[in-house]
Amino acid sequence: MPERLDAFVARAAAAYYARGGAFGRAGDFTTAPEMTQVFGECLGLWAAVTWQAMGAPPRVVLAELGPGRGTLMADALRAAREAMPAFAAAAEVHLVETSPALRASQRARVPEAVWHARVEGVPDGPLILLANEFLDALPVRQIVRRGGLWRERFVEDGRFVELPTDLDPGAAPEGEVREIGEAREAVAALLARRVAARVGAALLLDYGPAETAPGDTLQAVRAHAPADPLAEPGSADLTAHVDFAALARAARAEGAAVFGPLPQGLFLARLGLHARSAALARAVPGRAATLMSAAHRLTAPEGMGRLFKALCLCHPALPAPPGFEDWFED
Ligand code: SAH
Q1: Is 139 in the pocket of ligand 1 (CB under 6 A)?
Q2: Which pLDDT score is estimated for 71?
Q3: What pLDDT is stored for residue 187 in this prediction?
């Protein structure tokens, strides 16, 4: 039976993350928090400053979606405790994770957290939410233009088959592929409703173009090398570019203010990633080379500085969050 691409990707992702051990040098891919502790520390300080801008509520939900090994949240909390203990004391940590193996890694680093299988499970109230490389793991649908009509990609026996579809975004050149991330836009809409209803801010870091672009961006990575995305589900990490313009539209429709997308390199530089990396390198000379090369890779345009972006969904009355001070909506 052909399986619609998003259903295939959802099944593959669940099988893949259930195994849990894919992160870091020995695994399939490396993410920003696994490269340097300074990434999570900067986001912890971002959260602390945002909490102050929210009026320093005595209780705040500090949530993360898809926390991987829990490294980002552990680094963020350590920095927050040091720099702004009142924020750390107000924060109630909630993690959204489906994989039992990854929940166990997260529990080892962030024992005080409360876990949820779905974003809907995060409790109401003042909210600060972080998500790094979460949305790129949520499934996309793909449609392709054939003979003046759209057809949709299904997967059967490790290959694409094209079947009729209910999606119709209008005319396009023959053979053009479009990706539709309904599950991602639903998360953006839900977060937007939450931050607009109570006070809150959601910071989404991921990779993809600033403007919606056509094309097939589904990719599989195994042991740091490209793999066949349609091969045995669960054998490789499957992701696709995040459509930031679509997320921003979905969030605005729910009444949130939207800042960004800003290139990650610019965002992290503004949060002080380089200065903090240099200070830590001076304090721990044995780690200087690793710290400086990670800071470079995260911010350089040819590394993760340009393709990766930061998008922030906020309560409309909040001032621009740290890093987005010069952002003006058209
Ligand atoms: N943020 C981490 C991990 C990114 S990998 C880092 O930067 O290192 C994607 C994460 O999202 C994993 O923790 C994975 O288990 C989780 N995940 C993927 N799909 C999910 C879903 N549908 N619901 C909840 N968590 C999901």
Answers
A1: no
A2: 98
A3: 98
pLDDT at 9: 97
Q: pLDDT digits over 184-224, tens only? A: 999 999 999 999 999 999 999 999 999 999 999 999 999 88
C-beta atoms surrounding 120 within 10 Å = 10
Residues 3, 156 contacting (CB under 8 angstroms) = yes
Paired tokens of 317: 């009355």
Q: Quick: pLDDT tens for 298-330.
A: 999 999 999 999 999 999 999 999 999 988 765
Residue with the smallest CA separation from ligand 1 atom 16 is 66
- Listed residue (223, 221, 226) closest to 238, CA to CA: 221
Among candidates 112, 101, 132, 121, which has minimal Cα distance to 27? 101
For residue 207, what are its two tokens? 């990779």
> Residues in the chain with pLDDT < 70?
21, 329-330
**CB 132 less than 6 A from any atom of ligand 1:** yes
CA 135 to chain centre: 5
Question: Could you tell me how many helices (H) and strands (E) the chain has, helices first?
Answer: 11, 15
| Residue 21, pLDDT score | 62
Q: Note whether 227 and 234 are within 8 A (CB).
A: no
Question: What residues are paired with 129 via a beta bridge?
Answer: 63, 202
Residue 65 Cα to ligand 1 midpoint, Å, equals 7
- Return the ligand 1 atom nearest residue 23 CA: 8
Q: Are 60 and 91 in contact (CB under 8 A)?
A: yes
Cβ contacts of 80 within 8 Å, gap of 6 or more:
44, 45, 47, 48, 87, 88, 91
Residue 163: exposed, middle, or buried by beta-carbon count in 10 A (0-12, 13-18, 19+)? exposed
Q: Which atom of ligand 1 is nearest to the CA of 117?
A: 24
Q: Is 109 exposed, middle or buried (0-12, 13-18, 19+ CB in 10 A)?
A: middle
- State yes or no: cis peptide before 261, omega within 30 of 0: yes
- Ligand 1 centroid–CA 285 distance in Å is 33
| CA distances for 5 relative to 67, 153, 156, angstroms | 25, 6, 10
